[in-house]
From TrEMBL:
Name recorded for this polypeptide: TetR/AcrR family transcriptional regulator
InterPro entries: Homeodomain-like_sf, HTH-type_TetR-like_transc_reg, HTH_TetR, Tet_transcr_reg_TetR-rel_C_sf
Swiss-Prot/TrEMBL keywords: DNA-binding
DNA-binding region ranges: 33-52
Keyword Nucleotidyltransferase: no
UniProt entry tagged with the keyword Phosphoprotein: no
Record domain HTH tetR-type: where: 10-70
GO-annotated molecular function: DNA binding
Pfam families (alphabetical): TetR_N
Organism of origin: Flagellimonas aequoris
Length: 207
């Protein structure tokens, strides 16, 4: 038998989280108001406080949900047994696809961690986060075996992340400088799925 009470409460909580995501993405933690979130979710403020007693707790839930979508995906690539070059291609293709579908996520995460570093530090201590250590060890082995040019594995990971993430984090700047509309921006990002891996691989592979 279906538990109607559970379904109603689950649907309400989902609606609250979606509404909070919309408001937090637009305004950030400091400027967002609980009443705005309640209005966005089409519930009253008392109902909102029943589920989440404070804006900070609600923000934590939204942040966890957002990061919870990204971290497992990145770790599935970092921790796989696939070759380094294949991982590079999968990371770039998957990350760009993911962010095109969740366009506010990178800016949201970085913005809030810059505004509130303590929140970020606490979050990273208590939750699953991207861990490239296995990938870095794999890079070091490939260098030792003479398959990759010498490079600090952390620098390679940083290059991979920054080349892939920056156009989304700095989207307004990119669109302004390159005089792009939304369609042209997405086309450019699709092209980067092939451009970034080949650029990185051609830089590090032994000819």
């Amino acid at each position: 038998m279906v538990n109607i009470w559970f379904m109603i409460h689950t649907d309400t909580e989902k609606a609250i989280l979606q509404a909070a995501k919309t408001v937090f993405y637009k305004k950030g933690l400091a400027a967002a108001r609980m009443q705005e979130i309640a209005d966005e979710a089409n519930i009253n403020k008392a109902m909102l406080h029943y589920y989440f007693r404070s804006k900070e707790k609600l923000f934590g839930a939204v942040f966890l949900q957002a990061f919870g979508e990204l971290a497992p995906f990145l770790n599935s690539i970092f921790n796989s047994d696939k070759p380094v070059f294949e991982k590079i291609r999968e990371f770039v293709d998957g990350y760009i696809t993911f962010v095109v579908d969740n366009p506010y996520l990178p800016t949201f995460i970085i913005q809030e961690m810059n505004i509130n570093p303590q929140f970020g530090e606490t979050f990273f201590r208590n939750h699953v986060t991207p861990d490239p250590s296995k990938f870095e060890e794999q890079i070091a082995r490939e260098i030792e075996h003479g398959n990759i040019r010498p490079i600090d594995p952390k620098q390679l990971v940083l290059n991979l992340i920054s080349l892939t993430a920056f156009p989304f984090v700095g989207k307004g700047l990119v669109i302004g400088i390159l005089d792009l509309d939304e369609i042209a921006f997405k086309t450019l990002m699709e092209e980067r799925k092939k451009l970034i891996p080949e650029m990185i691989i051609n830089t590090i592979k032994v000819q």
